[in-house]
Write a structure and sequence with these properties.
single chain, 290 residues, alpha+beta, 4-stranded antiparallel beta sheet, 7 helices, 36% helix, 23% strand
């Protein structure tokens, strides 16, 4: 065996034991932990956008603004009366693992963090309470569902937070017969975005292959879709995020204009994917065409 050696197996066993250690605590004390933490809400691979502290009547509150990896939503974690026990730079870090413990004074929150180069660090804080909340502004990611229907990589509706839907639908219903641009849908069309994304790759191999098909035909659209799907399976397993980022960057100026026009706050901050494919295009030999 070259890779799956005895040493590899022993490391896996040790990792399982370490994970089971916290799982045993969690099982015994889940009733003492906040509901949001015990509702299968996973923080793994989410990214901290920034961290802020502000004074409160109880001391200092720490707020983490986080891009959630599973739902592609932005949410806030608020640590009330936070006391830092083990410090680390938080902004831009990825959440690898987390542990939450009940204490006499509230909670103890432990994080294992990684930066873009996978350098690891710990962060630990004691707090009187820890709450999950949605930001006041609508995340651009939430408007994606309304603005780019029929997108390539569909995700469950449950990923798009209820607050966004309630506000947007309420605004739409109150403007019946009024401004048709309230919901910016459809402003972008997925089929158009497919072609532009492929052009931006500047691949002679892709361009040559597409020249077989006439522009703006059903066959051309289907081929572009097939190429994107092949890229997702082959070059970058994370192409879903890369393509979504490209679409959102196209949507951003439209959402800002819509936000100003209707006086509805929209958070247009975007998270650039690691090794974004348009910044690091694959070589032609890496590309498998359908």
């Amino acid at each position: 065996m070259k890779y799956y050696t005895k040493a590899w197996y022993n490391r896996v066993l040790q990792m399982s034991k370490d994970e089971n250690g916290y799982q045993k605590y969690y099982a015994a004390h889940s009733g003492e932990l906040p509901d949001w933490y015990t509702s299968r809400f996973r923080l793994h691979d989410s990214k901290i956008i920034h961290a802020t502290t502000e004074k409160s009547d109880r001391g200092k509150d720490l707020t983490l603004k986080i891009f959630h990896d599973e739902s592609h939503q932005i949410f806030l974690l608020k640590l009330r009366n936070a006391k830092i026990m083990e410090s680390a730079l938080l902004a831009g870090k990825y959440l690898i693992a987390d542990e939450l413990y009940k204490t006499n004074g509230g909670y103890e929150f432990h994080l294992l963090l990684a930066d873009d180069k996978n350098a690891l660090s710990y962060f630990t804080a004691a707090c009187a309470g820890i709450e999950k909340a949605m930001p006041d502004a609508l995340p651009l990611y939430s408007l994606y569902e309304y603005c780019i229907p029929g997108r390539l990589f569909y995700e469950s509706e449950s990923f798009y937070n209820r607050k966004t839907k309630e506000i947007v639908l309420k605004e739409r219903d109150s403007n019946r017969g009024g401004d048709p641009d309230l919901i910016p849908l459809p402003k972008l069309h997925n089929a158009d975005l497919h072609g532009e994304f492929l052009q931006r790759l500047k691949s002679p191999k892709i361009s040559g292959y597409l020249r077989q098909f006439k522009e703006d035909t059903k066959e051309r659209r289907s081929t572009e879709y097939a190429i994107l799907t092949a890229l997702n399976r082959g070059v970058f397993n994370t192409l879903t995020g890369d393509y979504e980022y490209f679409c959102l960057s196209k949507l951003k100026p439209i959402a800002e204009k819509w936000s100003n026009k209707h006086n509805i706050a929209v958070d247009t901050h975007l998270i650039l994917p690691k090794n974004y494919i348009l910044n690091h295009p694959p070589a032609d030999e890496e590309i498998n065409l359908p």
